[in-house]
Amino acid sequence: MKHFRNILVQFTQNGMGAGDEVLSQLLATNYLKILDEENDLPKFIVFYNAGVKLLCTGSPAIDTLKSIEAKGVKLLACKTCINHFKLMDSIEVGQDSTMIDIIDLQRIADKVINL
Questions:
Q1: CA quadruple 12, 45, 84, 57: dihedral positive or negative?
Q2: How far, in Å, CA of 17 to CA of 28, rounded?
Q3: pTM of the model
Q4: pLDDT beyond 80 at 22
Q5: Which residues are bridge partners to 113 per DSSP?
């Protein structure tokens, strides 16, 4: 049985860490795959700035993110960011949110993890 912890994970770029984009995406995909196998899941994963690209067609993390969402984790994408990158038709998973939503989640989370 899955347990949801009051944790907010935030992806602010198209991957994890600075530097090589391919490596960054590989690290994010591996992180999400391991997270998907855990019994303790965060309640929310937020994607903003270039992080919204992880939710789009062609992202190496798409299948894992769909699995995580199917288990009940809320995936939220910054609508301003989606519009900025013109990705509205490319989003495959998650739902759009506002900066107010993100601030509210940051405020109520017991822990915020920035990736």
A1: positive
A2: 9
A3: 0.93
A4: yes
A5: 9
